[in-house]
Design a protein that fits this description.
This protein has 15 helices and 11 strands. With 329 residues, it is an alpha/beta fold.
Length: 329
Amino acid sequence: MQVNIQEINERIQQESAFVDALKMEIGKVIIGQKGMVERLLIGLLGDGHILLEGVPGLAKTTAIKTLAASMKASFHRIQFTPDLLPADLVGTMIYNQKNGEFQTKQGPVFANFILADEINRSPAKVQSALLEAMQERQVTIGEHTYPLPKPFLVMATQNPIEQEGTYPLPEAQVDRFMLKIKIDYPSREEELAIMRQQISQEIPVPNPVVSVDDVIRARDAMHAVYMDEKIERYILDIVEATRRPRDFKLDRISSYIAYGGSPRATINLAIAGKAHAFVNRRGYVIPEDIRAICFDVLRHRVAVTYEAEAEEMNSEMIVQEILDTIEVP
């Protein structure tokens, strides 16, 4: 089948025009953190969810609130606490005394954007209730099943410092997140700009510049982004190298990997690669798209052994070694 790259490129140029407007609007409020903002857009376009890890005060909550405000979309923030119940999240049946019937009261999960703040502060049954909604895009309350709105993006945060009184997410649940992003401190110049912004009289407020329909249309266009078979095989090589490193002359790290990425890693790497090309307003995927997004897709999907921990090797170092070894198409 003959693929007209120029035609696809022109279509993507048109359909992705809103990305610059959205970045500009978010940039009014969020200073720096360009990587986090780009990853949020990739998650939104790829219909995937995002797990953010970073110390408090790095604008994780502000970022998703700003994205929702720039988009005419509904937003709910849920603070995860040890006493939270699944019904507090998804909703419950309430008895109406007037007509003597039970009525459904939908929970805060019914919104376009959900911020699950400190997700590891709640017990497993609450986490699984949210993760079921993420996976199935629907919620069952009583005998009825209700679809969640489109788009539906969950951004969960966790604090890497405090581990006391937390319930770490099981690996199978972490795998449901398309991306895991680690956020670092801003640069000195960025922090000066943040300080000046926050102590000024007028704190900027984002305006809605994009509709939900624009995003749904952009998702369809994003799937049209061209990916060559060489890139597809490159993705397969990267993920397979996390499972069978010896086959790729990576004997040195084979004892460091407990288990590698699942087929979900392959799918998400391909989708995120296309979304990265789309955000950069290109109609075709290049190896740099895959390499740019690779750490965010794989860092939570490659489990390390005790031996790796003893030698201070983490999953990111393993992914870096794989990228350095595997031949780029």
